[in-house]
Design a protein that fits this description.
Blueprint lengths: L6 H49 L6 H78 L1
């Protein structure tokens, strides 16, 4: 009966690959959420700027214009910060992909070793069976 000595290592590598896949999934979801928020913030800012330009066409109140302009600057800075978050999430996603690729490579290496050992075992087992059959045929 074939028993792979590195079965525990193989299970560890499979578990590591599974956790890397889960991490990749979380990274993808985080990036998607960050991009959605960035899009929402960009459309809100666009709407604010559009409202601001239409507001300037009416009677002007310097204090209100100053407040609205300050709010637009604040929202612009907030959008820039969100863009930085999206960039960080993209980098995290890339790192997750690299870790998953490495984990898959490790697991596949162990699987190839297992297959090779199983082939060797099968070959040896077939040789033993053939020797027993040859001995039985020679005694008859």
């Amino acid at each position: 009966m074939f028993k792979f000595r590195l079965a525990s290592v193989m299970r560890i590598r499979e578990y590591k690959e599974k956790t890397c896949r889960e991490e990749l999934g979380r990274s993808v979801q985080g990036l998607r959420r960050a991009r959605e928020l960035e899009g929402k913030m960009a459309s809100d800012l666009s709407r604010l700027e559009k409202d601001f330009t239409s507001y300037q066409k009416g009677p002007l109140n310097i204090h209100e214009i100053s407040l609205k302009r300050g709010y637009i600057r604040f929202k612009t800075e907030e959008l820039n910060e969100q863009k930085a978050v999206v960039t960080r999430k993209q980098e995290e996603l890339q790192e997750s992909r690299v870790r998953l690729f490495a984990a898959m490579k490790d697991r596949k290496g162990i699987e190839r070793l297992k297959e090779k050992k199983h082939k060797i075992y099968s070959y040896e087992e077939n040789r033993r069976e053939q020797k027993i059959l040859d001995d039985l045929a020679g005694h008859c």
